[in-house]
Design goal:
Pfam families: Bmp
CATH topology of the largest domain: Rossmann fold
Strand content: 15-25%
Shape: globular
Oligomer: single chain
Subcellular location: Cell membrane
CATH class of the largest domain: Alpha Beta
Low-confidence stretches: 5-35
Order of helices and strands: EEEHEHEHEEHEHEHEHEEHEEHH
Main location: membrane
CATH architecture of the largest domain: 3-Layer(aba) Sandwich
Number of helices: 10
Family: Belongs to the BMP lipoprotein family.
Helix content: 25-40%
CATH superfamily of the largest domain: Response regulator
Strand order of the largest sheet: 2-1-4-3-5-6-7-13
Largest sheet: 8 strands, mixed
Number of domains: 2
Membrane topology: Lipid-anchor
Mean pLDDT: 90
Amino acid sequence: MRRITRIATVGVASAALALSATACGGKSSSDAGDTQDKAAIAYDIGGRGDQSFNDAAYAGLEKAEKDLGVKGTEAEPSEGEGDPDKVQRLTELARAGNNPVIGVGFAYAPAIAEVAPKFPKTTFGLIDDTSKTGKNIANLVFNEEQGSYLAGVAAAKVTKSNTVGFIGGVETPLIKKFEAGFVQGVKDTNKNVNVKVQYLTQPPDFGGFAKPDLGKAAAEGQIDAGADVIYAAAGLAGSGSIEAAAKAKKWAIGVDSDQYNQKGLAPYKEYILTSVTKDVSDSVYNLIKSVKDGKPQSGEIRYGLDKDGVGLATSNPAFTKLTAVTAAVDKAKADIIAGTIKVKTAP
């Protein structure tokens, strides 16, 4: 049975861990770092149910439960601005004997840097960040710009208005990798296509990853300005952009998960042309398995186009029928892998 944990903030100085469900057969906190049958993921802003990044991490944990027999624990983000309880959350997960403990998203970097040295026998996974390292830290990172380049190729091929849009949840270096790859893919395919770029919020306000209404409004604005393809790298907020595109009968490009297959987006799937996928699921599963096998991963673990760590989904039959588009995407993929195309990581 999985445990879902939440940090409830009391006043401004203390926090308590509340369990909404209790796992069977758990070990005491004195065993922290020694157990290999418990694993935890701490979600990024938006939590599970975002149809994107967090749900991809959950899929990896779910697979590990089924295939490896581990007991999984999920920790949801707190509601305070910037999710202030990350250190407390990771500490409690480690004390409970979970190994590994995985922070979903770059925002966990400072907290993992603080907590990991206190639990040297526990492996900590940090997704999307390499700024904080340690002997017991595995940095799970992706070449998002490569998958986004392929999305740019597809967008440039299908647009009829010669205007496409990119929506970023928060203007951070990570999300600008998505922008850079997408814009380059568009321009390399058709230099006459205009790319409208918009970010929903600026740090330290990370709400742009969690508010579908913002994503919807941004997409509506870009569509009103002539865009007929919208690519959003915005977590939960991206679902709003997909809704707006579908209602306007324009193409949407999803992100992180294959959003065509996400149940929560089923009403709009006809207009989800494709999705830029990141194999977050396998990265989570592989880290859990490495700990289970007694050979825990550490350092940078990179997932790129060459190993299908990023890619472009082909679930929508309408996309696969566009043979000229898929041929252009396949050629671009081969050229990136061969090194003929160098994809930028910044706009």
